């Protein structure tokens, strides 16, 4: 299938995702019921982002310009295995998009927590074309020529063992941080709250660590976080909050409560759901030089990614900074 035809189908898919099609609404409802972290609010947010940022014809054409010469040449399709994550709704869609446009046969192992939405959309694409789509579900990924796998630090060791001798992209845990200087406006902090709380903080682009100047006043941030106070009515989130609050109290660990968030001083980067870590700094230049970028997906703050944009990557914002399209086209 020619690239122009694929772009046409993808734009149609984006329009469909924003529609009130009865079967699509049922699929979203089932996804929400099977995974309580996938609330309809956050499913719709992911859909809106994918439809507008990934499935817009003009954006797709602009994204593909550097690759068009190779996409238009005769190719030698490979069999590519994709292991998708399931921490937030449809987080594996970008890999699917890259794999299909590059012309390979895709064998996809969907995450158990997110096995309804993307498969539904793949079937919809198959309905709209008479040409074979070459996208298949696969519980076991055997006999592939290359692999793309996303998981935790623990699962990545298994991926390395099984897929390491093949061309591969293996992604490990990453998180995002914010650097504050104390001059942030109310609007800045409201947008930062969005970076922290969207998808309950489960995404690798969620801010889970704050770097603040010594003596920083957290009260204005606490007021900004009040927009997400309803998280305490969400049973799994409230369970996490109660568990970690009890643990910190029992172990006499310093912390403070900002509404539905437990704020804890800690040098670590990764935090559990309902907890945000922070660390103070004296020299911002030294801080920036010492950031462990190998574990950071994005940095939010003045001079970095603007507040409020962490959860809305563009097509060119490849996970872990690895150009997925370049990798897939190199297989030809």
- The helix fraction, in percent, is 40-55%
* pLDDT averaged over residues: 96
Number of distinct beta strands: 11
**Beta-strand residue fraction:** 15-25%
* Overall 3D form: globular
The main sheet comes to: 6 strands, mixed
Instruction: Count the domains.
Output: 2
Distance linking N and C termini: 16 Å
| Element pattern in H and E | HHHHHEHEHEEHEEHEHHEEEHEH
Q: Provide the CATH superfamily of the largest domain.
A: Aldehyde Dehydrogenase, Chain A, domain 1
- Supply the CATH class of the largest domain: Alpha Beta
CATH fold call of the largest domain: Aldehyde Dehydrogenase, Chain A, domain 1
Assigned CATH architecture of the largest domain: 3-Layer(aba) Sandwich
**Measured on Cα atoms, how large is the radius of gyration?**
21 Å
Strand order of the largest sheet: 8-9-10-7-6-11
Low-confidence stretches: none
Tally of helical runs: 13
SS-based structural class? Answer: alpha/beta
If you had to describe this structure to a student in words, what would you say it looks like?
The chain is α/β, with parallel strands linked by helices. It folds into two domains: 3-173, Aldehyde Dehydrogenase, Chain A, domain 1; 175-301, Aldehyde Dehydrogenase, Chain A, domain 2. It contains 13 helices and eleven strands. It has helices at 3-17, 22-34, 40-54, 57-64, 68-71, 93-101, 117-127, 153-163, 186-197, 219-225, 235-250, 284-290, 324-330; strands at 79-83, 105-109, 135-137, 146-150, 168-171, 175-179, 207-213, 256-258, 261-265, 275-281, 296-301. A six-stranded mixed sheet has the order 8-9-10-7-6-11, with helices on both faces. A five-stranded parallel sheet has the order 3-2-1-4-5, with helices on both faces. Helix 1 (3-17) packs antiparallel against helix 3 (40-54) and helix 9 packs across helix 10. The longest helix is centred in the C-terminal third of the chain and has 16 residues, at 235-250. The protein is globular and about 60 Å long. This is Acyl-CoA reductase LuxC.
């Amino acid at each position: 299938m020619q690239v122009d035809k694929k772009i046409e189908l993808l734009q149609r898919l984006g329009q469909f995702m924003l529609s009130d099609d009865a079967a699509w609404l049922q699929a979203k409802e089932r996804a929400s019921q099977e995974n309580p972290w996938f609330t309809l609010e956050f499913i719709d947010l992911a859909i809106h982002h994918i439809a507008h940022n990934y499935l817009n014809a003009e954006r797709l054409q602009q994204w593909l310009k550097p690759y068009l010469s190779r996409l238009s040449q005769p190719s030698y399709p490979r069999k590519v295995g994709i292991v998708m994550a399931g921490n937030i709704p449809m987080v594996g869609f970008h890999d699917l998009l890259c794999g299909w446009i590059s012309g390979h046969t895709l064998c996809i192992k969907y995450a158990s927590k997110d096995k309804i939405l993307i498969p539904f959309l793949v079937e919809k694409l198959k309905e709209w074309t008479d040409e074979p789509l070459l996208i298949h579900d696969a519980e076991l990924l055997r006999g592939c020529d290359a692999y793309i796998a996303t998981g935790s630090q623990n699962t990545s060791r298994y991926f390395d063992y099984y897929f390491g001798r093949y061309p591969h992209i293996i992604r490990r845990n990453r998180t995002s941080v914010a650097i504050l200087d104390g001059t942030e406006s109310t609007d800045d902090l409201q947008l930062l709250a969005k970076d922290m709380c969207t998808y309950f903080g489960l995404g690798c682009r969620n801010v889970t660590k704050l770097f603040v100047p010594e003596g920083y006043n957290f009260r204005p941030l606490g007021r900004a976080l009040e927009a997400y106070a309803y998280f305490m009515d969400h049973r799994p989130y409230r369970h996490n909050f109660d568990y970690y609050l009890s643990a910190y109290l029992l172990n006499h660990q310093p912390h403070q409560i900002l509404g539905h968030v437990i704020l804890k001083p800690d040098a670590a980067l990764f935090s559990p759901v309902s907890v945000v870590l922070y660390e103070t700094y004296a020299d911002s230049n030294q801080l920036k030089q010492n950031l462990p970028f190998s574990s950071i997906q994005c940095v939010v703050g003045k001079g970095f990614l603007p507040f409020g944009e962490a959860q809305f990557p563009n097509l060119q914002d490849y996970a872990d900074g690895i150009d997925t399209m370049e990798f897939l086209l190199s297989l030809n």
